[in-house]
Amino acid sequence: MNPAPAPRPVSHSRTTLTELMIPAYANFGGRVHGGTLLSLMDKVAYACAAKHAGQYCVTVSVDGVNFRQPVDVGELVSLMGSVNYVGKTSLVVGIKVIAENVKTGMVKHTNTSYFTMVAKDDTGQPTEVPALLLETTDDVRRFLEAMKRKELRAAFSEHFDNAKTEMLFAENMHLLTKERCEVTDELRSQL
Ligand SMILES: CC(C)(COP(=O)(O)OP(=O)(O)OC[C@H]1O[C@@H](n2cnc3c(N)ncnc32)[C@H](O)[C@@H]1OP(=O)(O)O)[C@@H](O)C(=O)NCCC(=O)NCCS
């Protein structure tokens, strides 16, 4: 059996990607597509995770994608990623995205999101990643926050799965009355 890989510091895999938002990235409203930003975030997440793991990694889930402010064509977007947490084969990469208007120098924080990645070996199986060496108080805070997020996410999934199983259409139709939806008469007669 191979010995466990030595812990690697967060600084070993910290990655920043800066990209100019060109007109080809614009949506119909003239702002940058959310999908363009997601794609850049996925690249940074991959770079951090693969560098930490020393292995090919895949994206498993993404938390906390809330675009607080639009990004405009012509702005310089920087994505700062670092490994916040490692499990056995999974890693959480936190990514802070900022957009800078080069003329005014104004910087917007557009979002901070968390990508869970899994390292895979040459046969495509999840493989163990090195532990994370925490060197600063921020490293410790991020690791603890990631543990909390993981715990709350698992609790939410369980709670929601139970709620879905117990949810009976007939008993819950009244919840729709104040919502902005309509149920067709045909469907209503079937419920
Ligand atoms: C990710 C994947 C390898 C998990 O496979 P699996 O058989 O469930 O493997 P495991 O149960 O051993 O899980 C492996 C790790 O992933 C984590 N994991 C699995 N599903 C997860 C999820 N939805 N969210 C967060 N972590 C998850 C597990 O907690 C485990 O972490 P740990 O080893 O640090 O404890 C598998 O689902 C996969 O290959 N998915 C496709 C990923 C991909 O191709 N992404 C690109 C999209 S195009």
Question: What is the structure about, briefly put?
Answer:
By secondary structure, the protein is α+β, with helices and mostly antiparallel strands. It has helices at residues 10-13, 34-53, 137-166, 169-172, 185-190; strands spanning 8-9, 15-20, 56-63, 76-86, 90-100, 107-120, 132-133. The protein has a single domain (8-190), classed as Hotdog Thioesterase (Thiol Ester Dehydrase, Chain A).
Characteristic key phrases:
7 strands; 5 helices; alpha+beta; 28% strand; two-stranded parallel sheet; 191 residues; five-stranded antiparallel sheet; binds coenzyme A; Thiol Ester Dehydrase, Chain A
Description:
The strands form two sheets. The chain has a five-stranded antiparallel β-sheet with strand order 2-4-5-6-3. A two-stranded parallel sheet has the order 1-7. Strand 5 and strand 6 form a beta hairpin. The chain has a single domain, classed as Hotdog Thioesterase (Thiol Ester Dehydrase, Chain A, Roll), CATH 3.10.129. The protein has five helices and seven strands, in the order E-H-E-H-E-E-E-E-E-H-H-H. The model has no long low-confidence stretch (mean pLDDT 94). The radius of gyration is 21 Å and the shape is globular. Coenzyme A (COA) binds next to strand 3 and strand 6.
